[in-house]
## 1
Amino acid sequence: MNLQLIGLNHRTAPVEVRERFAVSEKKLPEALQSLVSHPGVSEGLIVSTCNRVEILAGLQNGSCDLRQFLSKFFEIEQQELDKYTYEYREKEAIKHLFRVTASLDSMVVGEPQILGQVKEAYAVARAVGSVHSELDALLTRSFAVAKKVRNETAIATSAVSIASVAVDLARKIFGKLDGKSVYLVGAGKMCELAARHLIANGAGTIFVANRTYDRAVKLAAKFNGKAIQFDELYATADKADIIITSTGAPHAIFRKEHGDQFMAKRRNRPMFFIDIAVPRDVDPAVNDIDGIFVYDIDDLQQVVSSHVADRKREAVHAEEIVAFEVERFAEKLQAHDVVPTILSLQEYLENIRTAEIDRHRARFGDVTPQQEAAIDAMTKAMINKIMHTPIVTLKTAAKSPEAATVVDLIRRVFNLPEKPQAKAAGGDGDND
């Protein structure tokens, strides 16, 4: 498998850069189709969340330039791209994927949302046909590794989510959250999770506005709240003490003039925006208004740092699990790499054997069934002895870095096809 992963995340790029690379749910199928149409790419996955945008690709050869794809698709110069992106290949790409799905690479280590987000990206990729054989096996294994990390460590029990971090910030601003009204702009999972945390900490009335009104109604019903038509957003948002927004809109939906309008109606009572959208829903200029406090996804990092110490020990154990699983999967990949060559060798020598028997059959004269069986057994035994050493060599090499070199040598010695066709790799068959 030729693997390449390129991306940027909350550590390498600030939110104002990440939002330029964000791929909306609506645009994701188009982006995937464009990816697999890029020269050298046979399979591809795109993960786009508030904290990261990553492209994982299976390559037809090792010379594909995914940076060129990123630059062209997002219309960003490669020199600027290089400031913020990281790149991994082969085993390092596998390791990074496993760490991401296990939430070891998250802003909030141990948070559960990233696994669901990768699974959603995988479902879309499968639906459009950009993920199949090899990436399918890799992603399936990454989900099993994430499950294993959660089952065998306490990393999730001591974790905090972006939503709980947002509650901590709200509590710092208001002191107590008792009776504070909350306005959810967007009806996604993150907004719902944040609302649950706020209610658990005493928040009162919940308002929900969403471009699809039916979704707003369904979410509001969960909290005995009130659904608002999206075109009434600006006329009603001043009722909220806390606004949690995550819409997926390409541009800010709350601007400075809106903030001025809200504060005039609220008579300068404080207002708190939690903007967990990428691209951001709230223009940074809104934060300049007295009495309005705006926190975006990067601001939440400051609160996260206070929770890190409790998870370090569990993270170490989780990293050990990931390292073991990376080696395990890499060995399986290498074994898959040598299987087609073994099959080609067997087929090549078997064809020689049967052709030679047929060519000399006229010289045998009449042979009894017993003699025919003896000839067949004798020639098969000869072929098996010839195949024994190269097959053992290939199987041994599958566990070592020189596997590709050995495969190439065997193909050359026996004049086998340059690129033997392997069966599609399947999953591991276990769910531990």
## 2
Amino acid sequence: MVDRGSLNQVLQQSAIVDLLDIIGGLPPEDRDRFLRLFQVEASLGHLVPPEHMNRWIDRYFGSLERVLTQKVVKVTNRETFEETLFNELRSRRPLEARIPAEFANEIAKTAPDPFCEPETNTPADTFGRIRGRHTITASNIAKYDGHHGVIIFDEHDPLAFSRELVVDAVRVAQEWYARSHAEDAAAIYPLFMWNCLWKSGASIPHGHAQVSLTRGHHYGKIELQRQAARRYQRTYGHPYFDDLFLAHQSLGLGRDLGGVRVMASLTPLKEKEIVLLTDRMSDDLAVAIFRVLQCMVESLNVVSFNLVIAQPPVVETEDDWSNIPVIVRIVDRGDPLNRTSDFGAMELYAASVVSSDPFRVAEVLWSNLFGR
């Protein structure tokens, strides 16, 4: 394994379009691990624009040469089949369907909504409300599972979250799971969700998170990861999530932050996805979440995002959850002032298409978290 200084230098000189060359330069052990987990393919796209488009192409894409031949890199996780196609040029596409910034900012920061007076304007769960130092719970009025609650932040502005607020929200979520499980012993699989602003699917701008506790098995995509991890460990004799982190770390895309493993994902669902892994729920994880979110908002220009915390079941089960960590995934959902959706048919039914380079995401992230 190369030292941290060497990884920093490699990271600065790396780009996702050169991933095949980067893998080829890894030490044999790191390269073998990476190729157990990922398949990487590169292809070239060509086009012939009419001459009258040249000025428009220069304006939006920098030069005609940039669009004539385009390199696309496809990264596939061999175990989960999560797959992402990268083309940096797509970030330069013209997006003109915007709404006035003043309108959106005013609503997000100041407009009243039911969450401004939650004890008057939101229902409670049957076990009552949980009041933290900076948050309070409500029962979701239109549930997508039998146990589905809301953690409402005292702070209205959805981007004005503090370290204390994030820690409090995570603590309150654990208490909500415990009380829901006490009412329904079969409900054992917890999920924490934080949708920020409209692009993320949030219907109310006021800062809030959601919690659910499901029965039978964990939500499908989480169960898929568990089964993939079990299959990988049976085949190779290595814990899947340990190798996943080491594969990212070998490229400079993963680091340890006080016992929390942080990665700029090689197969992001959408832009700038960051994954955190840890053995158990703790305040340290909540602080790491806050620090990563702070970097995303302040340095990676993220305004709207989705965040999930997927935990193993709250009690022992017949299924094997050994070596399955707490998994946090955070993804940028784009400019909330842009009416164009970041999800299309490709993301829904085929593979993710992403313009942000994980190496640049990691470079900014490590600079913020570690000061270099």
